[in-house]
Write a structure and sequence with these properties.
heterodimer, A: 324 residues, alpha/beta, Rossmann fold, seven-stranded mixed β-sheet, 12 helices, 17% strand, B: 368 residues, five-stranded parallel β-sheet, 13 helices, 42% helix
């Protein structure tokens, strides 16, 4: 199986969906002639032209809202945010229009849009560009949220998101764009709401999404090597819908859970997962559920401190050893 | 039509008085049949009687929440809807009852929605501010000031993308011109030559703040110049004038395509919403009375049609009686309709869930 980057996997997903469905259009800042701020859309403008791949002004509220309006008439816009942090200037459109129109119309309208882009820290760009709003989005009924960790997942989830008839927010990661994984050449789709056991284990469940899955895999390797602890790594892939059964199955097997996320801890995604575990698997727990989240302060610029601020293998291993 | 580069300015200015001149209708009004004219008149009256009845229901405690009445502005809704062809679409803000009835939504479904009943146009899930009828090219009914302006721009984008010769009428209030989303929309519409017409229904007050106290620069539509976009001012008390001036702008939007900003001067007799107890404090009773007495669109059109010999006193009385009865019947219908069943809370949230496609797995709702 060929190895391709996360970036190329997304690019292939867009090309295949643009080819398949005339109503799919890509909209965003610098995605066409510039080939994308992170080169995720490289070559697509040259191949599909102005009509299908469009550069926008720096005007998130307008182009996100435009995508929502167009989708009501059957267009399927894939809207790039250069950073998910920029969604904050389009908050009304993304969080108050996209998820509410269907409900308020009594089901007469649906909004088949994908909004996508990187949502991560760890890149030394300071607080305003480092937000991870998957918890905001998942908080909102009417929205769906996926956070792919590998190239394989990114392609399969993106293709499903584009074909989904509801608004799907896809949160990527700039630190993953250049990483390579095996991706099959033949077409495949990954359903939203299906988690993936990235590594089987028996002693403890590390439950994560996005890049934290990769950090957990490395932590699991070290735990085995240095402490003979066999950790299971469960990749949620999708936050809403959520594969609750996979979470419970893993916890019932290992009887211990550490939840790892780049969200801040207060009202972060892992808080919800912890609540579900205690509600549905309380009798299976041999230790309290613990969380390793980003530190609860605005993202710091200074690189060594930022690296400590977001979950890393040291913090994960320390927490696991406290639990076991 | 105002635009520094426009060739049509002089032509348009000459036309200004034509619409109001008696007996010599021109342009789009010349082809109106007697029945067409009566329909325009009847629909304005229906909107007013519907809203008066809804106000009564609000005062009875049958309707809660917000109720933004359109009374005084009816000519705009009927005139805009009357100009819409099959590929033309309309979207507005929360003062949406007039547009809803004008595009052909029924009083029953509209009144029942206000009552929060299952027979309402949105099954009781949207309320006064959120009426929708996509089958009639009416895309809401939006509660956040200016929030619908990017959506209207997107509707126009879809029309152009699908190569349909149509336009989107994107209505907003005078308060919405100060929202960033509106300006971002104008820029994108002009940049991409989208067939959207932003229609500012200027009723002079953004909630309780007068235009003078809220908006720099006048007229508001002139802001279009910053985006090299055409603009126009229209007297909102005259159905004929709105139709005559708007029709060619819609034609240009459809065929060029190109956007425009239109400001229609109007007035609301009631408060911002029914809950606005101060509406006689931020403006004078005299001002309100002056509009009712001298600028009321229904009264003026009634007078015009009487002079044209289209309406007799008996016709006027009969039309009003029917409108009142229709409104009363709709209130009865709403009253007698059931509330939505509790399981309706969880339908219409996700298309994929409602259609049981199986494309999504896992858990999507997180109740106890």
């Amino acid at each position: 199986m060929p190895q391709i980057t996360y970036r190329k996997a997304l690019n292939d997903a867009f090309a295949e969906e643009l080819e398949r469905d005339e109503n799919v259009v890509l909209i965003g800042e610098e995605i066409a002639e510039y080939n994308g701020a992170y080169k995720v859309t490289e070559g697509l403008h040259a191949r599909f032209g102005d009509r299908r791949v469009m550069d926008t002004p720096i005007s998130e509220a307008a182009f996100c809202g435009l995508g929502i309006g167009a989708s009501m008439l059957g267009i399927r816009p894939v809207i790039e945010l250069m950073f998910w942090s920029f969604s904050y200037v389009a908050f009304d459109q993304l969080f108050n229009n996209a998820p509410m129109v269907r409900y308020m119309s009594g089901g007469l309208i649906n909004v088949p849009i994908v909004v996508r882009g990187p949502a991560n820290g760890g890149t030394n760009v300071g607080a305003t560009h480092s937000h991870t709003p998957e918890n905001f989005a998942a908080y909102t009924p009417g929205l769906k949220v996926v956070c792919p960790a590998t190239a394989y997942d990114a392609k399969g989830l993106m293709k499903t998101a584009i074909r989904d008839n509801d608004p799907v927010f896809v949160m990527e990661n700039t630190l993953l764009y250049g990483q390579k994984w095996e991706v099959p050449e033949e077409e495949y789709l990954i359903p939203l709401g299906r988690a993936d056991v990235k590594k089987e284990g028996t002693d403890i469940s590390l439950i994560a999404h996005g890049r934290c899955v990769i950090t957990c895999l490395e932590a699991a390797r070290q735990l085995k090597e240095d402490h003979d602890i066999d950790a299971e790594v469960l990749d949620l892939r999708s936050i809403r819908p959520l594969d609750q059964e996979a979470i419970l199955k893993s916890v019932r097997k290992t009887n211990r859970a550490v939840l790892v996320e780049e969200n801040k801890p207060f009202c972060g995604t892992a808080a919800q997962i912890a609540a579900l575990i205690q509600e549905h698997a309380f009798d299976h727990l041999d230790a309290p559920v613990r969380r390793v989240s980003a530190y609860d302060a605005p993202q710091i610029y200074s690189k060594p401190l930022e690296d400590e601020m977001i979950p890393n293998t040291r913090r994960i291993i320390k927490t696991v050893l406290e639990v076991l | 039509m105002n635009k520094k580069t426009s060739q049509t300015t002089a032509k348009s200015a000459k036309k200004k008085s034509t619409a109001q001149s008696k007996g010599k209708l021109s342009g789009v009004n010349a082809s109106l049949s007697r029945d067409d004219k009566i329909k325009l008149y009847r629909d304005m009256g229906r909107i007013r009687r519907f809203e008066e009845r809804s106000l009564h229901a609000y005062q009875q405690g049958k309707i809660g929440g917000f109720l933004h009445l359109y009374i005084g502005q009816e000519a705009i809704a009927v005139a805009t809807a009357s100009l819409m062809g099959d590929n033309d679409h309309i979207i507005t803000a929360y003062r949406d009852h007039g547009q809803a009835l004008s595009v052909g939504m029924g009083m029953n479904e509209c009144m029942a929605e206000l009552y929060g009943k299952f027979t309402g146009c949105s099954k009781g899930k949207g309320g006064s501010m959120h009426y929708f009828a996509p089958d009639k090219n009416f895309w809401g009914g939006h509660g956040i000031v200016g929030g619908q302006t990017p959506l209207g721009t997107g509707i126009a984008f879809a029309l152009k993308y699908k190569k349909l010769e149509g336009c989107c009428l994107c209505l907003l209030g005078d308060g919405a011109v100060n929202q960033g989303a509106f300006h971002e929309s104008l820029n994108l519409a002009a940049l991409w030559n989208l067939p959207v017409i932003y229609i500012i229904e200027n009723n002079r007050y953004s909630m309780g703040t007068s235009q003078k106290r809220s908006s720099a620069g006048s007229p508001l539509a002139r802001r279009a110049e910053g985006y090299d976009m055409a603009w126009e001012l229209i007297d909102g008390s005259s159905v004929y004038e709105i139709r005559e001036k708007l029709a060619p702008i819609m034609d240009r939007a459809r065929t060029q395509p190109e956007p425009a900003v239109v400001e229609i001067q109007t007035y609301r007799y009631r408060g911002h919403s029914v809950a606005d107890a101060n509406h006689e404090k931020y403006r004078s009773k005299k001002e309100i009375e002056d509009y009712k007495k001298n600028h009321d669109p229904i009264m003026l059109f009634q007078r015009t049609l009487a002079e044209e010999g289209v309406l007799s006193d008996a016709d006027i009385e009969e039309i009003d009686r029917e409108a009142k009865k229709e409104a009363a019947d709709s209130a009865r219908f709403a009253d007698e309709s059931p509330f939505p069943p509790e399981e309706e809370i969880f339908t219409d949230v996700y298309w994929e869930v409602d259609h049981k496609t199986g494309k999504n797995e896992g858990r999507i709702f997180f109740n106890d």
